Amino acid sequence: MTRLVRGFAPLTLAAAMLLSSSAMAKTFTDIDAPIGGALVPGARAAVLARLSRFGVTHATLEHAYTTKLKSGAVVRFVQKHGGLPLLDANVAAVVVGNKLVAIGGKLAEVKSLSDDAILDANTARARLLAQLPARTRAGALITRTTLGLVMDGATARKVYELALSTQSPFQRLLVRVDAVSGKTLATRSALRHVQGLAYGTNPKQTQAVPYTLQGLAGDGSELKGEFANVQSCAVKSNKLECTRYAKPDTNGDFLDMPVEPSTSDPFTEVQAYYHVDTFHRWLRDTFSFARKRASQSIDVVVNYYVETPQGDQGVYNAFFGDVNNDGLGDVVMGQGNKRDFAYDGDVIYHEFTHSAVDETSNLTSSFDAIGFNHVPGALNEAFADLMSSFFTGDSKVGEYAGGNRGEIRDISGNATCPDDLIGETHEDGLLWSRAIWTVRQTLSDTKVFDLVVYNTMASLEQSPSFADAVKLLVKLAQASSDPTLAGKLDAEFKKRAVDTCERVIALDDVTPSRSGFLLGAGQLGLNLMPASLQYKIDVPANAIEMTITVIDRYAKWSGTTNVGAFVRKGQTVEFSTFKSKSDFTIANTAPSLTLKVGDSENTLAPGESYYVLPVNVGQYQGAFQLLYTIKLADPPDAGATPDTATTPDAGATPDTAATPDAGTTDPPQESGCSIAAGAMPTLPAVLLIVGLLALVTRRRRRR
Q1: Measured between alpha carbons, how far is residue 529 from residues 136, 439, 497, 584 in Å?
Q2: 3-state class of 219 per DSSP?
Q3: Are residues 92 and 214 in the same domain?
């Protein structure tokens, strides 16, 4: 078995999504400090007085934006050094009344700034485009370039962050490249994505009836107004082409009947305008939601499909992201061959909530010291479901969009940690949404409760843990006009163990096997994707042998095994910006690792704990099953030999019954950006190249 050498050289492609190996986002709620003077200077002073909580002694904070709450405000700051922003360093200060009640985020202790000569922006852009496959490079655009800093230990290094738009495949990406070498460091999707089959408010529950369309601008001849600008768009010859099919009749009304399926359906434009406008007004009137920019209107794309040489391809997706390259996020409703996403109001409300998160807390998954931290994405998905359900009063999300299988998700019911934690944002978001929905169902009046939930959504720092999110939710409930809500929420989250939910899960004799989810590695030269979760195995003191096996549950579709793992003794497998640490590799070509007492290379240390981090080297999303067996030495009075010793769950077999879509022969669809990869390497060859994507977390898939 190949062993990883300690003390790696800097990686060819680094995951520049971290400040340092120890930089983890933190949230502190044990605060009740008056804010003196003006809001922004007072909040800045309060944060600077508490820098030690973030492990730093000095930081320069620049005001980014302020989100107004009905009961106060959230003031957000970005850290700068030498006039440049530290791209992952930010702090949110939550003020209720005139008191600071919480702060959250992460900051860096900058000891030095690299003085290496850097590329000019044009050269950096050219080198990024040159790395793309020819098919992807055609029609690719870079719409924004920012020079910033990421941390390598205590040294700040300059990087360019570029907003990249491609059409083949369709992507909106934020890519970081080393400003010195021009090499790609990290990539994440700039789309909030949902995947499923889709319609309006919705055909399963209501009939189409006339509604008043509010806020139309000008002479009312276009579906363009105060809160929405709706067009039908398609990708043709790698370009986005848009038109307006909905036209007013002689009375000025838009009364076209629905046409399903159709890529030129005028009804879907009216449907989208009405629901975006109505939902935005509800968020504004109920929670004081407002966009940071002066214009409150959002571009809405419907009837969306892609034209290819093989014919028009229906898009079974809805997402929030910048498709028209104006630097602002858009709500996009795909037109599938059977169902139109815009016909389901739940889908519109869900996607619009992603835009509200983007305008407030900007919950974003990224890499940290454990692996790929999907929890912010899970919270983002949970809030999107919750706001939709708060608005409709119905726990079921996407009854029409789900087609014959029924609703896409139901936020009523049970979900506990770690039993229901699998590393997938939509499923793991149920840990949050179901606990909140359960408490809400016990209340006769939900106004204060809903405001507490919204204020938490708007107040969280960018990369919170479940535990930190619970702390802030309970804190804001205590500060609300109904403090009794705090105890109810605290009790529910404790019952589900979400308040202590961690991304390291212990395996034992009772649960010697776990299944989980992995994102795809992608196509920008980033050829390894770590899981969000690590797994801990405590080895008995009398153990003589342990075997760890990682099974690729999608191998039957891909035709190859893409899943392996890294293993470390005594500590979690460690990820940091430029170096990572582990002791052993389970290669995707040989998916088992056996450690034995006395083995000179793969030595087992009885009494130690071992940590396992699954990884995916395949192009597409993956699923794995992890299991282990242990052989024990004979008791002193036993006659059995070590070879006959029993092992925990020795009869465990691969969890084939639980394989997703086991009854189909088609490969599973990718849940995030469909980034094609080059040749598929084995794990020993790539070491810990973790620079892909804070991806797919910003891409929201409906399941």
Answers
A1: 21, 36, 28, 17
A2: coil
A3: no
Torsion from C-alpha of 667, 672, 676, 679, nearest 10 degrees: -70
Q: Note whether 514 and 646 are same-domain residues.
A: yes
Instruction: Give the integer Cα–Cα distance in Å for 147 and 120.
Output: 10
284 three-class SS: helix
- 107-158 per-position pLDDT tens digit: 999 999 999 999 999 999 999 998 888 878 887 889 899 999 999 888 999 9
CA of 684: how far to CAs of 188, 586, 628, 670, 688, in Å? 24, 8, 21, 25, 9
Task: Please report how the helices 345-359 and 447-459 are oriented relative to each other, as an axis angle in degrees rounded to 10.
Answer: 50
Whether 660 maps to a domain, the answer reads yes
Question: Model-level pTM?
Answer: 0.82
pLDDT of residue 534: 97
What does the pLDDT look like over 475-509, one tens digit per residue? 999 999 999 999 999 999 999 999 999 999 999 98
Residue 587 contacts residue 535 (beta carbons within 8 Å): no
Determine how many CB atoms are found less than 10 A away from the CB of residue 636.
5
Helix (H, G, I), strand (E, B) or coil at 547: strand
Query: Is 435 inside a domain boundary?
Result: no
Q: What is the pLDDT of residues 228-242, one digit of tens each?
A: 999 999 988 888 899
Q: Which of 688, 400, 333 is nearest to 530 (CA)?
A: 688
- Distances in Å between the Cα of 308 and the Cα atoms of 86, 131, 139, 339 are 41, 24, 14, 20
> Residue 546's domain spans which residues?
504-686
